[in-house]
Amino acid sequence: MRFKRVFGIVIDSVGIGEASDAKDFGDVGADTLGHIGAHFKGDLNLPNLEKMGLSNIRENNPIEGVAVVAAPSAFYGKMHETSVGKDSMDGHWEMMGLPVTEPLGFFPQGFPAELVKQIEDFSGRKVIVNKPYSGTDVIHDYGEHQMATGDLIVYTSGDSVLQIAAHEDVIPLEELYKICEYARSITIDQPYRIGRIIARPYVGPDKDHFTRTANRHDFALEPTDETDMDRLKAAGYDVLAVGKINDIFSGHGITEGVHTESNADGMHHTIANAGKDFTGFSFTNLVDFDAMYGHRRNPQGYGEALMAFDQQLGDLLAILKPDDLLIITADHGNDPGFKGTDHTREYVPLLAYSPSLPEGASLGIRQTYADFGATVLDNFEVDGNAVGTSFLGELS
Description:
Family: Belongs to the phosphopentomutase family.
Keywords: Cytoplasm, Isomerase, Manganese, Metal-binding
Distance between the termini: 8 Å
Cofactor: Mn(2+)
Number of strands: 14
EC number: 5.4.2.7
Protein name: Phosphopentomutase
Number of helices: 12
């Protein structure tokens, strides 16, 4: 069976247990969903995801509070990443047939003086901090200084990112974005090759009331080759991007994109897409799980966000048409019950649902995220690059 529309939702960072190569990343024991379930002690209420078969993916070790169901409504499985990193860019590119094979630049001791000086010379502003830091902690600790001086708060993490934080009343968004665009331009190639430059604006009167705004903007590397989204667009199909999808792919392969302010807003736009008459692929990223709860190691907030998503998921399921296919997955883990504050190397869940499909069954362990994109291409009879294996024929 083929579908007129495919909806892909990436629940950013919602891993489902350590991957087979977790030891290579220092992530043995990571289990984002497992540790969230344990934190809630049976009170993690995810009725729609439960019915789809979320715990069936790990039926011998179900997520606490999420039952294994006898007749799941979706086909279910999990996917293993083959890219050399565990950042959002790596995960999304791989989903769309472009695994990242060249390691990106990581700077656990801060960025080289030469790079910092280039940013300072271009911006006319001093760089402060320049070391790994939690995004909320860094504005708490340095935000008042930044407001007083106009300096740039530059920081990083265990991912290949250079983040620049600035108060919106001190450095206007247009200027902050311009500085980040410059930083992007000088970190594309070695010796830096940084995956993402991220503008991190914030507001508030003092350190106890600073909040980061929805005006975050990611300046990612340009895709190094065609992606499955490029192939769909070239074949004449609609490719609708919701959330940071547009940033991650630098606008490539997209016919219509929309910025979002939150998970709820992302689901609102996805549901709106379901009400449109289009033929092709709607691709959504819900970043709050990662940015607001995973990196902050907040299992309570993470679980509450999952429950809120599940409610909106019910709204989407109710309006899907028989010729719609919904695929839910994630791009990496970010276990709020694990050490550190960085992404975790985990399998990611895979759920595929359509009102026209029969009772679900196991899709097993997919050996690459690229099986997602291969399935979308297969559905629309568009040739790919032989990276990934379609599971379309297994949905019956």
